[in-house]
Design goal:
The protein is an alpha/beta fold and 388 residues long. The chain contains 13 helices and 13 strands. It is globular, with a radius of gyration of 22 Å.
Length: 388
C-alpha cells in the first residue's frame, strides 16, 4: 500500500472470484460482490411470499438504485433512471429526435463501441446523415471531431474512455462546440463509471448512458440513463413503454401522456432482478470512492505499462496517466493465443482484435498480481517461441 493511500485491499474478501483466480479483466466484467446472492434472495423471497404485491417493494428500487449512481457522478437527484443496457438507453434518446435538414447529422468516431455505430447507422432509414469521424479505432480524432460539429449537427455520441485502448477523452471542448451550434451530446460512460471520477453537471453533457457489467461490479442486465434536468421535459421518446406514462396503472389508450422528468424514459416493465444485483456493486463503489479507485489505478496501470515496455511489448494505451482510463492494452505477436494460455493458467484477461490483451486491475487487486501477469506473458512467449 502506498503512503497516504487507503487500504483498499480490505475489500478484497468481498469478491469470491479473487480467491480462485488472478482476476484482471474488470473493464469487461467486474468481480461479483459476495452480497449479490442475498440481494437476489431478497428479490425472490418477495416474489414467493407476496406475489404481485411484491411490486410495491420492487418498484421504488428503480429510483433507489439510480440514486446511488447519481451520488457517484454528482448528478441531481431524479436525473437518472435504470434500463436494460446501453442499446436501450441510446435507442430511447434517438427516438426523441427528428431528422429534418439541415440539422440531421449524427456524429461519432471510429473507436466507438459497435452498439453505438449500429444504432446510429440504423437512423439513416429515418433521414439521419451519419458522419463517422476518423478511420483508426485506436486513435481518438479529437480535432477532427470538433471541426466536424456545425449547424447541421443534431447529436454527437462520444465515449469517455475508449474500450480498446483506455484513452480518456477530454469531453469539455466537444460539449462546448456542440452547444455553440445548438447540438446535443451523449456521453457513453461505460468505461469511466466507477473508475474515473467526474461531475456530470460540470461536464455539461445532455445525456449519459452506460451499464453495470464493468467497473461498477453490478453484472449484466442493468443499464442507466441520465438526461440533463432542464432538457428532459422537452423530449418525447417514441420508444415509450407503459412506465413512460404519467399514470401507468391507469391503462389509458394513446396518445401517451408522458411522465414528468426522467420517468418518461423508463420504458417497459423494469428488469428488477438485475437492479437488485447491481445495487450491491454500486454501493461498494460509492463507499470505496471513485477518487481512491482512480489514484490506485495511477500506480497499478503504471506498473503494467513499465513492465510491458521493459519486455518489448507494444502498449496501445496512452502513457500519460491523465490521458488514460484504468486499463492497459498490451499487444504482441499471437496475442490471442497468449490470452488463451493466460486464462488456462488462471490469469483472467481478454483480447480485442487489432488492439491486444486488455489488463484491468481494480481497487481490490494487488500490485503483485499486476507484476505477475506481465511476468507470465513473458514466460508464455518464451515457452511458445514467440518473438517480441
Amino acid at each position: 500500500m502506498l503512503a497516504g493511500m487507503p487500504d483498499l485491499l480490505s475489500w478484497r474478501s468481498r469478491f469470491p472470484v479473487l480467491a480462485r483466480k488472478t482476476y484482471l479483466i474488470n473493464n469487461s466484467l467486474g468481480a461479483m460482490p459476495d452480497s449479490v446472492p442475498g440481494a437476489l434472495a431478497e428479490y425472490t423471497r418477495l416474489w414467493a411470499e407476496e406475489g404481485v404485491v411484491a411490486w410495491d417493494t420492487w418498484l421504488p428500487q428503480v429510483a433507489t438504485v439510480a440514486s446511488i449512481l447519481e451520488d457517484i457522478i454528482r448528478a441531481p437527484r431524479g436525473s437518472m433512471t435504470m434500463c436494460q443496457n446501453v442499446t436501450n438507453a441510446l435507442a430511447e434518446i434517438l427516438s426523441c429526435l427528428e431528422y429534418e435538414p439541415p440539422r440531421n447529422r449524427l456524429i461519432a468516431c471510429a473507436g466507438e463501441f459497435p452498439t453505438v455505430e449500429y444504432l446510429l447507422d440504423g437512423q439513416r432509414a429515418y433521414g439521419a446523415e451519419v458522419v463517422r469521424i476518423g478511420s483508426d479505432p485506436l486513435t481518438f480524432p479529437a480535432e477532427q471531431l470538433i471541426e466536424a460539429i456545425d449547424h447541421r449537427t443534431l447529436l454527437v455520441v462520444v465515449s469517455h474512455v475508449l474500450f480498446r485502448t483506455a484513452e480518456l477523452v477530454d469531453v469539455r471542448p466537444i460539449v462546448e462546440r456542440a452547444h455553440e451550434y445548438g447540438a446535443m451530446v451523449v456521453l457513453d460512460a461505460y468505461q469511466s463509471m466507477g473508475s474515473v471520477p467526474f461531475d456530470v453537471v460540470e461536464l455539461g453533457v445532455d445525456f449519459l448512458v452506460g451499464g453495470s457489467v464493468k467497473w461498477l461490479c453490478g453484472g449484466p442486465g442493468a443499464g442507466y440513463l441520465y438526461v440533463r434536468p432542464d432538457l428532459v421535459d422537452r423530449l418525447e421518446p417514441r420508444m415509450a413503454g407503459w412506465f413512460s406514462h404519467a399514470r401507468p396503472f391507469g391503462f389509458e389508450p394513446p396518445p401517451i401522456v408522458y411522465a414528468p422528468g426522467i420517468g418518461r424514459f423508463t420504458g417497459g416493465t423494469p428488469n428488477m432482478p438485475a437492479y437488485y444485483q447491481a445495487r450491491e456493486g454500486y454501493r461498494i463503489i460509492r463507499d470505496v470512492g471513485v477518487e481512491a479507485i482512480r489514484e490506485k489505478a495511477r500506480h497499478q496501470t503504471s506498473l503494467l505499462i513499465e513492465g510491458a515496455l521493459a519486455r518489448g511489448f507494444i502498449v496501445r494505451t496512452p502513457l500519460e496517466f491523465e490521458r488514460r482510463g484504468n486499463h492497459v492494452t498490451v499487444d504482441l505477436p499471437h496475442a490471442e493465443q497468449v490470452k488463451d494460455e493466460l486464462i488456462r493458467r488462471g490469469f483472467v484477461v481478454d483480447y480485442r482484435p487489432g488492439a491486444g490483451i486488455r489488463i484491468a486491475p481494480h481497487f481490490y487487486n494487488t500490485d503483485d498480481e499486476c507484476r505477475a501477469i506481465i511476468d507470465e506473458m513473458s514466460a508464455i512467449c518464451s515457452e511458445l517461441g514467440i518473438q517480441v
